[in-house]
Amino acid sequence: MTSPQLEIQLIAVLVAVACTLPGVFLVLRRSAMLSDAISHSILLGIVCAYFIVRDLSSPILVGAAAATGVLTVALIQALERTRLVRNDAAIGLVFPALFSMAVILIAQYARTLHLDTDSVLLGELAFAPFNRFEILGRDVGPISAWVMGGILLLNAFLICLFYKELKVATFDPEFAAAQGLAPALIHYTLMTSVSITAVGAFDAVGSVLVVALMIVPPATALLLSRRLPVIIVLAAGLGVAAALLGYWLAHLLDASIAGSMATMCGLFFFAAYLFAPERGLVTQFQRRQQQKIEFALRMLAIHLAQHENLPEAATENRAEHLCEHIRWDKKFAQRVVRQAIQAGYVTEHNSRLILTDEGRKLAELAVAELM
Fold it and tell me: Is the pLDDT score of 325 beyond 60?
């Protein structure tokens, strides 16, 4: 493995963790699309700041981009507070307008610059190692690695410092306001963090991957756990896994690195959506089938108990009669009988079903629950 390959993966990992940390709270606040709005609208801040300072490496561009992200959130909330449009419509009104303004300005006045919409949307991690950071003439690594490392530390510091406030304001903003925690201030602090993260990842990975890493790993983690600390750790781990596996997928297919990483994020989410231990579709289907069988076992125990001491028990308590008396189809009846025998509720003698002591207890319990 070459040095540039290691540096690309390092940058990808730093971007992934830096994005997932604030992304967890965005998803929990049901504000996922704000990341998309911010990651696009910050282009306007970069363009406007460049026209003032005429230097693409100036830190003023970062500040202007972050300020534009906060302005985007403020405009969206201002529109929403009018009660004339809903939140999703407000997002759809604000960020396309700001992004379009940036595109027009670039097309008219900045055509010769390395500042185009393709690089904004897609980025190119393969070029990140060529932009080096030097201290006293000594090469200390890619600029993107230092920038994203700093943003990662900043996001981690903010979450550790304001963890309680973020948690309360996220799940119960009214209670947070009653406790004097200033949920509005916490909200705008989080949005500033999201804006800074989007700006930092802007050049290396593009806005598409920023949105993917900020939303998809946290959404996946929410399917896997209900505890906030676990969700944060899982989201960061999934982001790292998607970054590394996505890089090698791109290497194997000779495809876009950012696109491959976003694809891995989607695959992780799809797997969790199907197989998450509690909320996955397959898991829920299996649980419903198991509940159906458990209910059927109770009904079988009640049916056998009712006929156990009657003269017709010899003929009624047979597997083939279940279809007629309990309205089960033949295959399902055979399956229930098989499960009942395996569980020790029923024994079968000369095709007659006989309740065991455990089966009688199950019948008594089922009747008691129905009363």
Answer: yes
